[in-house]
Amino acid sequence: MTFLWFYFTVLILDSSLTYISSSIVYTHFPYDLQPALWIVCLIKFFVLGIVSCKLYRPAWVSSSLLYILTMCLTPPLYQTLRLHLTSHSPELYSILSHSIVSHLTLLTACLLWDLVSPHILPKESSEEEKTGQKKNRENFIRLVTYSKADWLFLSGAFVFLSLALICEMFIPFYMGRVIDILSSKYKETEFLVAIFYMSFFSISSSVSAGCRGGLFIFSLYRLTRRLRILLFRAVIKQDIAFFETTKTGDITSRLSNDTARVSRAIAGNVNITLRSLVKCIGVYSFMISISWQLTLLTFLSSPFTWIIQKLYNHYHEDLVQKVQDSVARSSDIAKEILESVRTVHSFNAAGDEAKRYEDSLQEIHKLQSYRDMVQAVYLLLIRTTNLLTQVAMLFYGQILIEQGFISSGQMVSFILYQMESGDHIRTIVYMLSEMTHSAGAAQKVFQYLDREPLVSTSGSHSPDKLRGCFEFRNVTFTYPSRQEIPALQDISFTLPPGSITALVGPSGGGKTTCVSLLERFYDPSTGEILLDGKPLHQYKHQYLHAKVALVAQEPVLFSGSVKENIGYGLKDASMNELQRAARRANAETFILGMEKGYDTDVGENGGQLGAGQKQRLAIARALARDPQLLILDEASSCLDAETEHEIQKSLQGIDGLSLLIIAHRLRTVQKADQILVLEGGRLVEHGTHGELVKTEEGVYYKLLHGHLLQNGD
Ligand SMILES: Nc1ncnc2c1ncn2[C@@H]1O[C@H](COP(=O)(O)OP(=O)(O)OP(=O)(O)O)[C@@H](O)[C@H]1O
């Protein structure tokens, strides 16, 4: 009912006002109708404006004032244009019929606008969105500063951009000249001059456009490379907690997709937007200089082109994102299946897995078809709008040629310019939304660039001589990804220099966590870890990692030779040092037994070596850095008793080396100088093997008992 009430009130008011004001004005301006029309428009606007603001309007008439303004302005504007374009004298419109027609058109327009506007108009921005926009601007400025290193190439590119534009602008103009010369009395000199200029501008524009594109792409690749290096450096120095809480896929996507998108923002999008903007201005200047009436006519299609482009951007971007997501999902599925192919075969699930992959491909296909259909409809609509504009232009152009306002050559130039103008408007609209996305991508990249690792690496202490006494003093620690339960609670112990310490206890007791703290993967939540009386964080990061070496449960080897793996991270280790480390780790015999000895390739992740061989190589790698503390976290679990014994003997022979051993096989730890028993994050027992077995109700005793039973001993 709101709709009917609003519509009839405004209609009746408008008709009455038009009738009254036209009668009054007409009596004063009987011969000059144009000013009369504008005065009527003004009167109506004020009265209707005041009244309609008080009316209750339907939701889809976005603003009463805008509605009234459009309704009052359209008739005098139309009559004025008609007078100038066709020299027809203006008419005072018939009251009721005219009102009904104009209201109906306007209401239909409002309704249509209401339907499409949610997709093409930015929603009213909240406080959060406003700060987001501010952040986008800041990000953009920051990006410009990253491009500083390329200023020479970018300036060159902008010079060529301007040259190419200037030259391109003159080509249709001289084409029109040639047609004019050919269609009038032929003058050879004029014809040759026009042809010369046309060729000159064509060649110059092509050369300049080539140089412009080349320089922009060159700067784009340089910027992408720089951003990737910066981002990689920022990511790799992050603390372990960061990698535990961030998916690897997210990081790689930032590194590959977002950096490329961000670089495009400067060298790509700005380049294209500027080119289109300047060309648009140039093209329209030429068009106006040929005929302003025809130019006005071409503007009629602009709102439609704008709306179509906006709608297309909205749907297309959404679909492109969905296609990308489903492609990523599908490759994840393929990767997962191929990585666990043994399990797939053993459960006879090859058929099911193939079907799962096929379904994911089917989903991609469906989305791609939909995306292509949207693209086809878009092209159809754009081309139809263009065609209709050109038909209208040709009709009106023919009148102008007949009346002698323009020549046929100028008409050809005009059509050529007009064809270009549409492309540029579409590009500008597209690029504006693309820039918002680039700013979003930049935000994600900067988030990583700006992140300060939770574990600081700013320590500078690096003494020449170190005694090597490690001490846990009242250490409590909670994992950032599991805040509820502390993994270690009030732990205190000392690792004297040159001693062997064993950490034992039931699974989940906190052994590996102690090692992670010693390696400074995390800092303790409370308490301190000291090395020779100084907290670990005061030591230089590289120094500390040379002094504390870890051989983890599942050692990671890198593809490359045995030699490269032992010397990993050591820039100036000699071959002798590497061989000595291999001997100490009892690895030399098997290394020399391989075809190429130290130059043998270990394969991806050390895939060409057995588990025990991998462990020995990992121990050799740790020993090559000449550490003060060697941590063996289940590092000999795949070795036979004899080899394990050999390695231990050789390690004990290294002067000043402290050993921290974590092992479930209790025979490995029996000879330790001290055994620390951890349970539920607490240090529950402490002593030598002999001391601990005496406590029959103790955790160590039970562990040993269980272990002996398990081995049938
Ligand atoms: N990265 C992590 N994030 C959150 N919680 C963790 C993490 N690593 C270990 N924990 C938790 O901390 C506690 C101690 O684990 P830790 O790995 O140190 O025990 P452990 O004695 O080495 O066990 P295992 O002998 O099975 O290796 C456990 O409750 C475990 O679930």
From TrEMBL:
<dbReference type="Pfam" id="PF00664">
    <property type="entry name" value="ABC_membrane"/>
</dbReference>
<dbReference type="GO" id="GO:0005524">
    <property type="term" value="F:ATP binding"/>
</dbReference>
<keyword id="KW-0571">Peptide transport</keyword>
<dbReference type="GO" id="GO:0016887">
    <property type="term" value="F:ATP hydrolysis activity"/>
</dbReference>
<keyword id="KW-1278">Translocase</keyword>
<keyword id="KW-0812">Transmembrane</keyword>
<dbReference type="InterPro" id="IPR011527">
    <property type="entry name" value="ABC1_TM_dom"/>
</dbReference>
<dbReference type="InterPro" id="IPR003593">
    <property type="entry name" value="AAA+_ATPase"/>
</dbReference>
<feature type="transmembrane region" description="Helical">
    <location>
        <begin position="65"/>
        <end position="81"/>
    </location>
</feature>
<feature type="domain" description="ABC transmembrane type-1">
    <location>
        <begin position="156"/>
        <end position="437"/>
    </location>
</feature>
<dbReference type="Pfam" id="PF00005">
    <property type="entry name" value="ABC_tran"/>
</dbReference>
<feature type="transmembrane region" description="Helical">
    <location>
        <begin position="195"/>
        <end position="221"/>
    </location>
</feature>
<dbReference type="InterPro" id="IPR027417">
    <property type="entry name" value="P-loop_NTPase"/>
</dbReference>
<feature type="transmembrane region" description="Helical">
    <location>
        <begin position="281"/>
        <end position="300"/>
    </location>
</feature>
<dbReference type="GO" id="GO:0016020">
    <property type="term" value="C:membrane"/>
</dbReference>
<feature type="transmembrane region" description="Helical">
    <location>
        <begin position="151"/>
        <end position="175"/>
    </location>
</feature>
<dbReference type="GO" id="GO:0012505">
    <property type="term" value="C:endomembrane system"/>
</dbReference>
<keyword id="KW-0653">Protein transport</keyword>
<keyword id="KW-0067">ATP-binding</keyword>
<keyword id="KW-0472">Membrane</keyword>
<dbReference type="InterPro" id="IPR003439">
    <property type="entry name" value="ABC_transporter-like_ATP-bd"/>
</dbReference>
<keyword id="KW-0813">Transport</keyword>
<protein>
    <submittedName>
        <fullName>Antigen peptide transporter 2-like</fullName>
    </submittedName>
</protein>
<feature type="transmembrane region" description="Helical">
    <location>
        <begin position="93"/>
        <end position="116"/>
    </location>
</feature>
<keyword id="KW-1133">Transmembrane helix</keyword>
<dbReference type="InterPro" id="IPR039421">
    <property type="entry name" value="Type_1_exporter"/>
</dbReference>
<feature type="transmembrane region" description="Helical">
    <location>
        <begin position="36"/>
        <end position="53"/>
    </location>
</feature>
<dbReference type="GO" id="GO:0015421">
    <property type="term" value="F:ABC-type oligopeptide transporter activity"/>
</dbReference>
<feature type="domain" description="ABC transporter">
    <location>
        <begin position="470"/>
        <end position="705"/>
    </location>
</feature>
<comment type="similarity">
    <text>Belongs to the ABC transporter superfamily. ABCB family. MHC peptide exporter (TC 3.A.1.209) subfamily.</text>
</comment>
<dbReference type="InterPro" id="IPR036640">
    <property type="entry name" value="ABC1_TM_sf"/>
</dbReference>
<keyword id="KW-0547">Nucleotide-binding</keyword>
